[in-house]
Amino acid sequence: MANRKPLAQRAAEGILDYIRTNDMKPGDRLPTEQELTQLLEVGRGTVREAVQSLASRNILEVRQGAGTFLSDKNGIMEDPLGLSLEPESQKMALDMMDVRLMIEPEIAFKAALHATPEQVQALLDQCSRVEKLIKGNKPYREEDALFHKLIGECTGNLVVSRLVPLVTSSVVLNVDVTRDRYRDQTVICHRQVAQAVARHDPETARRAMIMHLHILRSGISDDMTTPLND
Q1: What is the mean pLDDT of residues 129-137?
Q2: What is the predicted pLDDT for the residue at 3?
Q3: Whether 191 contacts 199, CB under 8 Å
Q4: Which residues are CB-contacts of 38 (< 8 A; sequence separation ≥ 6)?
Q5: What is the Cα–Cα distance from 199 to 206, expressed in whole angstroms?
Q6: Residues 6 or more apart from 206 whose CB is under 8 A from it?
Q7: Of 119, 105, 115, 123, nearest in space to 204 by CA
Q8: Residues 109, 88 contacting (CB under 8 angstroms)
Q9: By CB count within 10 A, which of 1, 57, 147, 209 is most buried?
Q10: pTM above the 0.90 mark?
Q11: Beta-bridge partners for 60
């Protein structure tokens, strides 16, 4: 039976096959549009449609004048849980923190068991980067999210490494209901988690992550009756 999929969809699948076959990593540059037309045996218009489709799914990133690259967002949408459609509130932030408490301490535990020397160094470097931003009173949310993403990668579990960004990217969408009062505690807890992972001490890593998340959760809970615009 003839392939009934639209031509652009088949082209997009061909691009994905190319990415997998060549073991491409985030930031790697794809072949040019002309090269893709020859590789996929389709026209330029079809290639452009396929690339745009994958870019809309955060799989590819098109940089004007530079080319097309594999996105570091790993196909994760900006709002994977649809939280932007929900009212911003302490209740939403509290629910998200409960979810993080269910999964992130165990992720930290696994990270301490399986982290490679290279992953440990990357985690320690990221910990220092977040600490520097916090102490410099600069925005640090994205770097904070990357710190937690690196912990997920330390587990060596492909599903976990995709799951953590999904959670942390959703957290960024919520208002900072704690008014960032616990930034100093974040520095301390991040360092404790990172050092426990570096020592391959899973129990301490788990406890440090629980403490980190409980501090934030307690702050949100304490503010449940306080107006957000104070």
Answers
A1: 93
A2: 59
A3: no
A4: none
A5: 13
A6: 105, 106, 108, 109, 112
A7: 105
A8: no
A9: 209
A10: no
A11: 70
**Residues near 226 by Cβ (< 8 Å), separated by ≥ 6?**
none
State CA 60 to chain mean position distance. Answer: 15
Cα(first)–Cα(last) distance of the chain, in Å? 65
Q: What span, in angstroms and rounded, lies between the C-alpha atoms of 65 and 192?
A: 43
Query: Residue 197 has which token pair?
Result: 């992972």
**Tokens matching residue 227:** 């107006």
| CA distance to 6, 53, 142, 188, 202, per residue, from 195 (Å) | 51, 41, 21, 11, 11
Which class for 207: exposed (0-12), middle (13-18), buried (19 or more C-beta within 10 A)?
Answer: middle
Token output for 81: 């849980």
Give tens-digit pLDDT for 193-224: 999 999 999 999 999 999 999 988 887 776 65
The SS3 assignment for 67 reads strand
Q: Is 37 helix (H, G, I), strand (E, B) or coil?
A: helix
Look up residue 63 and give its amino acid. R
Burial degree of 93 (CB within 10 A; 0-12, 13-18, 19+):
buried
Q: How far is CA 159 from the centre of its chain?
A: 12
Token look-up 């399986």 returns 114
